Amino acid sequence: MRRIAIQVLTCLLCMVFSASAAEKKPVETKKVALVRAPVPTPPYWFRYPQFTDAEVRLVVNWFQDALEAKRLHLAAIPAAVAREIHITARLTGDVVKSLVMPPSDLEGKLLPLPEGYQRLLAGSVLLIVKTDERLVVDTLPFAGR
Questions:
Q1: Dihedral angle computed from the Cα positions of residues 75, 81, 84 and 90, in that order, rounded to the nearest 10 degrees
Q2: Angle ∠(8,13,19) on CA atoms, nearest 5
Q3: What is the DSSP letter of 90?
Q4: How many CA atoms does the CB half-sphere of 124 hold within 13 Å?
Q5: How far is CA 121 from CA 21, 45, 82, in A?
Q6: Over the chain (145 residues), what is each successive 10-residue block's mean pLDDT?
Q7: Quick check: 103 and 126 in contact, CB under 8 A?
Q8: 41-71 in b/e burial notation, b at 16+ Cβ within 10 A?
Q9: Nearest partner of 114 among 139, 89, 131, 93, judged by Cα
Q10: Looking at residue 135, what is its pLDDT?
Q11: Cβ neighbours of residue 77 closer than 8 Å, sequence gap 6 or more
Q12: CA-to-CA distance for 26 and 95, rounded, in angstroms?
């Protein structure tokens, strides 16, 4: 019994001394310099806001519901205006005058655009336009059935 007690005390003392000795040793850590990979430049079409898939579904459904309920009459776009409405086009003054703001109930369903951009409607084509440059950033045509 005495031998077991001595062995237990010896083990406890060894644990206490080894723990105190480990605390006193400074821990050496290697400093590693983190190198970040360069961020690739996004393609041209990612620099501007675009219609998301969810927004496309919302707009198409809104147009279909409005046409079925006879709340909306889609006027034909003049050929001169239709030629100028495409992505990366710079709108002229005559075309800008023919564009209108989309209805508020449709605008309320869509995500807000960053400052300097607005949605405009030309017949059955919804546009995202960068206002200061009159640049067409994205188009969403609706083909009624």
A1: -110
A2: 125
A3: B
A4: 17
A5: 77, 21, 12
A6: 68 62 58 51 63 89 86 76 87 87 89 89 89 91 69
A7: no
A8: eeeeeeebbebeeebeebbeebbeebbeeee
A9: 131
A10: 92
A11: 85, 122, 123, 124, 125
A12: 74
Question: Domain boundaries in the chain?
Answer: 51-141
51-141 classified as CATH 3.10.450.160? yes
Cα–Cα distance measured from residue 86 to residue 38, given in angstroms and rounded to the nearest whole number: 33
Task: Look at the chain and count its residues.
Answer: 145
Tokens of 67: 């046409």
pTM of the model: 0.63
Contact 61, 67 (CB under 8 A): no
* Cα–Cα dist 17/20, whole Å: 5
Which tokens sit at 21?
A: 């000795």
What's the distance, CA 90 to chain centroid?
24
pLDDT (0 to 100) of residue 26: 61
pLDDT value for 113? 87
Backbone phi, then psi, for 25, in 5-degree steps? Answer: -75, 130
